Amino acid sequence: MSADVPATDDPVVAALREACEGEVTGAAPISELTTLKVGGPARVHVDAMRDDDLVAVGRVCAEHDLPWLIVGRGSNLLVADAGWHGIAVSLGRGFRGYEVDGELVTAGAAEPLPSLAVKLANEGFRGFAWAAAVPGSLGGGVRMNAGAHGGEMADHLVEAELFRLSSGSRETWPAANLGLRYRHSDLPSDAVVVAATLRLARGETEEVRAEISEIKQWRRDHQPINEPNCGSVFTNPEGDSAGRLIEAVGGKELRIGGAGVSALHANFIVTTPTATAADVRSLIRTLRQRVADESGIVLRPEVQMVGDFDDEGLEVRAPDGAADGRGG
Ligand SMILES: Cc1cc2nc3c(=O)[nH]c(=O)nc-3n(C[C@H](O)[C@H](O)[C@H](O)COP(=O)(O)OP(=O)(O)OC[C@H]3O[C@@H](n4cnc5c(N)ncnc54)[C@H](O)[C@@H]3O)c2cc1C
Description:
Elements: H1 11-19, E1 24-29, E2 41-48, H2 51-64, E3 68-70, E4 77-79, E5 84-91, E6 98-101, E7 104-108, H3 113-122, E8 125-126, H4 138-144, E9 147-148, E10 151-152, E11 157-164, E12 169-174, E13 191-199, E14 201-202, H5 205-222, H6 242-248, E15 255-256, E16 259-261, E17 269-271, H7 277-295, E18 297-298, E19 304-306, E20 323-324
Parallel strand pairs: 2-5, 3-5, 4-19, 18-20
Antiparallel strand pairs: 1-2, 6-7, 7-13, 8-14, 9-10, 11-12, 11-13, 15-16, 16-17
Bound molecules: flavin-adenine dinucleotide (FAD).
Flavin-adenine dinucleotide binds near residues 72, 74, 137 and 223.
């Protein structure tokens, strides 16, 4: 531990600092770890550098009976204002980098998807340009089966390297065992994706770069990428779009506290500096209720909500015969 690390009274922080190579922060502001920029602190945040740091997180969670929260680039996370009373763990520099072996690419799970998409274009692969639009990590992308512009992780994933926090060991899981479907996987809750192997086809670098530029331009034109948000708040119901349904009930006019529906895309909630997680969640509930009342469709949140929300929950009164939105 370096001399400039602040002293701590928290035995959990002290135990993790003793064991981890990566940075350990007590009372860590979660809002800085997520793209929505709201939410209370995590009791402790570990920026894991190596497997031994993850071993320590699993061990300290067990010893202190604390839950863990795996945080990627926080681009699909809504953390409660009360924060996270356990250990939040991210993958640091030690989980970056990639290797190419013929048509297979094995990359560290901390690789940001947009830069990985560019690197793989430069390596002469095609088919992964869609990932340039998704501001998550490779690990978060596997967990969510991220996808865009006609592609998704399940199209390429051969296997994932999982670190199990409860046993402190690595396992290799073939993609077929991960239960990947629309914005969802069946990963065990203690599984940290630490690396993933993708199969990609060869292509012309210049063509793929042009495709990436087009995709990025489309995003700038159609999504509020310069305001804090978490991407699509709801999954699209079968055969319809959540954005269309929300717009049809006047959702674009809605604002609660510091959170509002984006004027550019109705399935995006954007926050201002005064926003709270409760504002965002209350807006999610209101949108669900309005859409259920008008269309009979109950939208399913895509954003992952974690921590204790002191509210009545997200259940909505569904009219008779209401359809459940597709997805996880
Ligand atoms: C502007 C914007 C546009 C977006 N567009 C898209 C889009 O087009 N398509 C799309 O699919 N998504 C989109 N998203 C949502 C988001 O980028 C994806 O869901 C992404 O896969 C989340 O990755 P992350 O690393 O940020 O995960 P986080 O948000 O940090 O976490 C999401 C979930 O994954 C888990 N997790 C994260 N890392 C790991 C890991 N290494 N191992 C195990 N579990 C992990 C977390 O515990 C959590 O349950 C968008 C988001 C934004 C802000």
